[in-house]
């Protein structure tokens, strides 16, 4: 089973692209190290306070894929610098 998620976030404290990328690098690196999930920035690369992540998980069972994505989304929510505004899940 393949589950993808498109996650839009706002980064309130970023005053430059350098600050935004610093936050994103920390989030992406932690997710790649802690979860079995592929992640990248999909959109809004040139906006200071907005981003869109793409997450993909491949698992042998639907329940495992769903649990992994939900844990990853909860982890994203744990960052005080980010606010998750919109999430779209899609089974492939």
UniProtKB/TrEMBL annotation:
SUPFAM superfamilies: Hypothetical protein TT1725
Coiled-coil region: none
PANTHER family: DUF503 DOMAIN-CONTAINING PROTEIN, HYPOTHETICAL CYTOSOLIC PROTEIN
Name under which the protein is recorded: DUF503 domain-containing protein
Organism: Halobacillus mangrovi
